[in-house]
């Protein structure tokens, strides 16, 4: 299987988890990487700047109608759902919150699963609710790969546990092992 894109979802404890994840990714990755981290609409923190200090890949905030570019980490902006369109471009939505969040991991994962099908890898990291579980199930249904941070290694284990309970996983590993696993899947 050829990996086209990676989607990552996280919530409570997510910034630290993303720093670990992005810091271990090979800078040669050619896949688009799209991240949904729960953030409030009034979040003025420069998350892209914070994560860029740990990442060997460029980190940008996704924008309406921009294409998902390979080798770039795209962040869901605060206050908007981030969706993937079939033409590999982003769409932003202010539809109601899903799982008490906007941006919602499920919204991103479900649209990405339909856009990228079997070429997609979905990653669920630490978080305190169930967002991402339904989207990960759809990723697997379309033939994509599901990676879940082992709940025991998560700062907030509810989200990875919900993903395991609903969707299962192709790989359930500690956070520190996820970057090497993604490198193997994407550079093989």
UniProtKB/TrEMBL annotation:
Record-given protein name: protein-glutamate methylesterase
Q: Which residues carry out catalysis?
A: 11, 38, 131
A molecular function (GO) held by this record is: phosphorelay response regulator activity
As its record notes, the protein acts as a catalyst of: [protein]-L-glutamate 5-O-methyl ester + H2O = L-glutamyl-[protein] + methanol + H(+)
| Alphabetized PANTHER family for the sequence | PROTEIN-GLUTAMATE METHYLESTERASE/PROTEIN-GLUTAMINE GLUTAMINASE, PROTEIN-GLUTAMATE METHYLESTERASE_PROTEIN-GLUTAMINE GLUTAMINASE
Q: Name the GO terms of the biological process aspect.
A: chemotaxis
| Annotated SUPFAM superfamilies | Methylesterase CheB, C-terminal domain
Q: Which GO terms describe its cellular component?
A: cytoplasm
Chain ranges of the CheB-type methylesterase domain: 1-182
Entries under Gene3D superfamilies matching the protein: Methylesterase CheB, C-terminal domain (3.40.50.180)
Query: What EC number(s) does its UniProt record assign?
Result: 3.1.1.61
Q: Which organism is it from?
A: Rhodanobacter glycinis
